[in-house]
Amino acid sequence: MTSRARTQTVEAGGGRTLLVLVGLGVVAMLIFNLLQVAKAHENFFTEANLLFLTLIFYAAATAIYVGFAVTGEESYVHFASAATFIGLAANTAAGVHRWYASGHPPFSSIYEMLLSFVWTVALLTLVLERRYHVKVIGTVTMPVAVTSVVLMQLLDSSSHPLVPALQSTWLHIHVTLAMLSYAAFAVSFALAMMFLIQDRMKTETFLAYTSAFLGAIYASILGARLGSGGALRLIAWNPQTNEEVFFTEKARLMVNIPNLGYIFLLVLIAVLAPLALYAWARFRHDERALGWANRAFVLGMVFQVIALAMLLLRAQPGNPYATWQTEGFAATSLEASPFLLAGIVSGLFATLLYLMLMWRREGLERMMPGTEVLDRLTYKTIGIAFPLLTLMIASGAYWANRTWGSYWSWDPKEDWALITWLIYAAYLHARIARGWRGRKAAYLAIGGFAIVVFTFLGVTYLLPGLHAYS
């Protein structure tokens, strides 16, 4: 047997190993879910079960897409597409079930909007993969989908009658346009990231940006939740009613989890260490510091995993902790802090994507379309999403005038939607009028999606206003 044949045999064996492991994981989770359903004597085709199926197959697709990016095994793409398609079917069924049970399209809460957003992201992933042959697009888009579904598992999924302000056909139009545009912007973000890889941006530059992103996540967590004595403050949770506990009418009761804040502080130091070493390498022209930065990055991933494990173990409803505002004790739950968990999961996905780039840069470049194709696809995607965003804002203004007698109320969600519109308007203007191509345009596309995420999720929980329900 020749050396090349032996290599192909080993790669095929490795390929089968990954597929077998993912397949066994899917089967194990399906059996676990079936046992839980049988134990509870409930119908299998409930919204919760369908959403769990969605999570299983989207996670399987993510693992196989990453496997394809790491190994270059072409057969992986077919299995990843199949898993994405099955997850999309379950996602569709969950949306239809929600629509039938609530009597209105799934657009009235952050949970329902995420359900629609994830569906659109998965659909666009399959379209780009099949029509434009961007085979590694799922490596970036499917982690976004998985993080969103994990977040949905923790959000309040109860269905309520629409408030009077939402009882309008304009709700369907407004939110449909929002979810289509936001999902398209997510895809443009993935394409812009791929462009930067193909445009030969240095790997250490990706290291610095990823380290800064992780630092922003953990600095935000500590800035909002670090308590005295190194405790981490989480929202109190009533396990009997499955609701947050409020100290006053509008102030949530907070509990202190001892020493967990110190662990997150260590994570913050660990994830920022690569950025500091990168800066040192640039300032002193010391290439050895870049090697240390990559080693520190791997260590930072270990610290992130430890912090996540500690959070999962200690933020359980059965564990009482001292409250911050009173002298009593209360329990907490991950359901009370869904965005904290989503931030940590997002950070881990970003970490894994950088490590994949660091270890498999050349292989990834061979699997991606050229810079011209990626630049053009980014432009086309934003060119489709921007008119949808414009119509979303216009329909919202018209709807607001009919409901409240004013086209614009300077509500935080409205303001940030306008900021989002201005960012992408600047992208299109710079490209059409100024001839911007390449990295400048890619940076705008990436920055625009960061604003989209804050508009969609951050404003809802940090700057509530008239759009508090969304």
| Class per helix and strand makeup | mainly alpha
User: What is the straight-line distance between the termini?
Assistant: 62 Å
* Total domain units: 2
Individual helix count? 13
Radius of gyration: 23 Å
Widest sheet: strand ordering: 1-4
Helicity, as a percent range: over 70%
Give the beta-strand count: 6
Low-pLDDT windows of residues: 1-14
Largest pleated sheet: 2 strands, antiparallel
- β-strand percent reads under 5%
Task: State the shape.
Answer: globular
Summarize this structure briefly.
The chain is mostly helical and 470 residues long. The chain contains 13 helices and six strands.
How would you describe this structure to a colleague?
The longest helix is centred in the N-terminal third of the chain and has 38 residues, at 3-40. The protein has helices at 3-40, 47-71, 75-102, 110-131, 138-154, 169-198, 203-225, 260-284, 287-314, 338-367, 371-404, 412-432, 438-462, and strands at residues 232-235, 237-238, 243-244, 254-257, 321-322, 329-330. It has 2 domains: 16-199 and 362-462, no CATH class; 221-336, no CATH class. Helix content is 74%, strand content 3%. It has 470 residues and is mainly α. It is globular. The strands form 3 sheets. Strands 1-4 form a two-stranded antiparallel sheet. A two-stranded antiparallel sheet has the order 2-3.
